[in-house]
Write a structure and sequence with these properties.
The chain folds into two domains: 107 residues, no CATH class; 170 residues, ANL, N-terminal domain (Rossmann fold), CATH 3.40.50.12780. Helices cover 46% and strands 14% of the residues. It is built from 14 helices and eight strands. It is α/β, with parallel strands linked by helices.
Length: 315
């Protein structure tokens, strides 16, 4: 099929989905079982279109490819995946630090409105600003709402989200606050134990409190004995860094569920979430060296490292 027809189909499909983006149920259908091959095909086509759009309209990416002798159009015979393998990887040194933010934007300019600038934590040495346009912010909001719906729909009590991620320029806290306001009751507190305990005391035990924060903060919060945690219905959701299964077990003494959100500021916020199945699998691997040897690449030693970490959500 000609690239022009493929790209036209992708644009049309994007427009169709956009008509229903106000509903979380639309995305639950699109992520449902049975349509994975079609979704993967669309994903490859969308990646193809995005590559050629960036090569044509983003000055920094055009120069990045030219320096490496890579054409701005995919040329392939057979599988599209093979053509993707020839595209060079980018990192902060080879791309982010080399070109300015406007040069890394479509058309070489920043939009005058509809833009939010997040800042990553600076774990690589210096905090980095990440510019989010309208489309990316919409996609992030939808992903967070779909992930939240998986948890909230199974609760017996009304959910009350306590957003204890750091607020301000950091990516996670403000994105959570703006994304989930439409679908739940929420108070954005930041990592402040005193305010969380005061809020839960004030509102009482009639809610399921979904507390969102970093693993060390959750641990210190639940170890605060000013509140009788056994009287409250709690779901803990963590991000920002890895969690060990020992840490999860500790948190589960106070919360009936503990799930992670995976991602990174420079990749995608909330790119994936843990489910009951993935948590059970990970705990089974950690507990059974024979199972670890059967289903991990390097056996139980590698598993012991893998099971004590997770993909971090840079904040």
């Amino acid at each position: 099929m000609k690239r022009s027809l493929i790209f036209a189909f992708v644009w049309a499909q994007d427009g169709f989905v956009r008509l229903f983006t106000h509903s979380v149920h639309t995305h639950k259908v699109l992520l449902g079982p049975g349509i994975e091959p079609f979704r993967w095909l669309l994903g490859r086509w969308r990646a193809w279109r995005t590559f050629e759009l960036a090569a044509r309209r983003v000055p920094a990416y055009r120069e990045f490819l030219a320096e490496r002798g890579i054409p701005g159009r995919l040329r392939f015979r057979g599988r599209l995946a093979a053509a993707f393998a020839a595209i060079p990887e980018m990192d902060k040194d080879s791309y982010i630090k080399k070109w300015s933010i406007p040069q890394r934007s479509i058309g070489g300019v920043l939009p005058r409105h509809g833009v939010v600038v997040d800042e990553s934590s600076g774990s690589s040495g210096t905090p980095t600003s990440w510019v989010r346009g309208k489309d990316e912010r919409l996609a992030t909001r939808q992903l967070l709402q779909v992930g939240f719906a998986r948890t909230a729909n199974s609760l017996r009590k009304q959910p009350f989200v306590l957003n204890a991620f750091s607020l301000g320029a950091w990516a996670t806290g403000m994105n959570v606050s703006t994304s989930l306001t439409e679908v739940t009751m929420m108070k954005s507190i930041g990592p402040d134990r005193n305010k969380i305990i005061a809020t839960m005391t004030e509102f009482g035990t009639g809610f399921t409190y979904i507390i969102l924060s970093y693993p060390p903060f959750l641990k210190s919060l639940f170890e605060d004995d000013r509140l009788d945690w056994s009287q409250y219905d709690i779901v803990a959701a963590f991000g920002g860094e890895g969690i060990s299964e020992n840490m999860r077990s500790h948190i589960l003494r106070y919360a009936h569920s503990a799930f992670g959100s995976y991602g990174a500021s420079d990749l995608e916020i909330n790119i994936a979430i843990e489910t009951d199945y993935t948590v059970a699998l990970r705990r089974a691997i950690a507990a059974d060296p024979r199972l670890a040897r059967r289903i991990t690449r390097q056996g139980s030693t590698a598993c012991s490292r893998w099971c004590s970490s997770s993909i971090p959500t840079t904040t």
